[in-house]
């Protein structure tokens, strides 16, 4: 069934006022436009749109590094208040966008959402995004989340970015994980931790 894109019309009109003459919102990222000036506009529409296909295009359009510092609060709100009629997949896309724009200002909210098991696997990329934030609170939350089977692999991958020595014992449990990507992340993290510890001992 062809999705109803009537919600898209006013957004496209405003994009044209900014000099972005596109047929659909997804043209912005699929055709690699430079649409930095449109980020505030796109963010402002996220809570106002109900049509799933249009909301997902908006979310994907702000899943870019230059939306950092702008899109985070709207994405957090969208993740927490999904439309009950929204099919599976949009929540994960919003979580992925939060990962892309993650910064310390979102840390408390990301930890809270990452711990909320009601969101299931939609939390995966929010948990991954904690690996972008080098704060003790992020490390503590990730060590806790390796015990959550729905997001454990992503918690391990996030810890592989941070390589905190205090996570070594938690990571050791995953060095022979049946999921190859998790096993590699755990081994890479432990190797990095061991190098850090060896350097400390040698000084």
Secondary-structure map with pairings?
Blueprint: H1 8-17, H2 27-30, H3 39-45, H4 52-61, H5 72-80, H6 90-101, H7 107-115, H8 124-129, H9 136-145, H10 152-162, H11 168-172, H12 180-202
The beta-strand count equals 0
Radius of gyration based on Cα positions: 19 Å
Strand content of the residues, in percent? under 5%
Overall form: elongated
Rounded mean pLDDT is 93
Q: In terms of per-residue confidence, which ranges show pLDDT below 50 for 5 or more consecutive residues?
A: none
Q: Helix/strand-derived class?
A: mainly alpha
Largest sheet: none
Task: Summarize the amount of helix as a percent range.
Answer: 55-70%
Continuous helix count: 12
Distance between the termini: 66 Å
What is the N-to-C succession of helices and strands?
HHHHHHHHHHHH
């Amino acid at each position: 069934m062809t999705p109803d894109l009537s919600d898209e019309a006013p957004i496209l009109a405003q994009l044209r006022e900014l000099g972005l003459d596109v047929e659909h919102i997804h043209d912005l990222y699929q055709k690699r436009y430079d649409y930095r000036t449109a980020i505030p506009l796109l963010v402002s529409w996220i809570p106002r749109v109900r049509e799933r296909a249009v909301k997902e295009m908006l979310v994907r359009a702000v899943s870019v590094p230059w939306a950092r510092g702008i899109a985070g609060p709207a994405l957090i709100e969208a993740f927490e208040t999904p439309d009950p009629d929204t099919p599976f997949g949009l929540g994960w896309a919003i979580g992925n966008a939060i990962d892309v724009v993650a910064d310390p200002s979102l840390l408390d909210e990301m930890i809270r959402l990452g711990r909320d098991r009601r969101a299931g696997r939609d939390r995966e990329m929010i948990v991954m995004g904690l690996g972008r934030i080098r704060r003790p609170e992020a490390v503590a939350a990730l060590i806790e989340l390796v015990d959550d089977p729905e997001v454990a692999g992503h918690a391990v991958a996030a810890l592989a970015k941070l390589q905190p020595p205090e996570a070594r014992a938690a990571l050791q449990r995953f060095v022979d994980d049946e999921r190859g990507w998790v096993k590699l992340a755990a081994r890479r993290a432990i190797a990095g931790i061991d190098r850090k510890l060896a350097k400390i001992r040698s000084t």
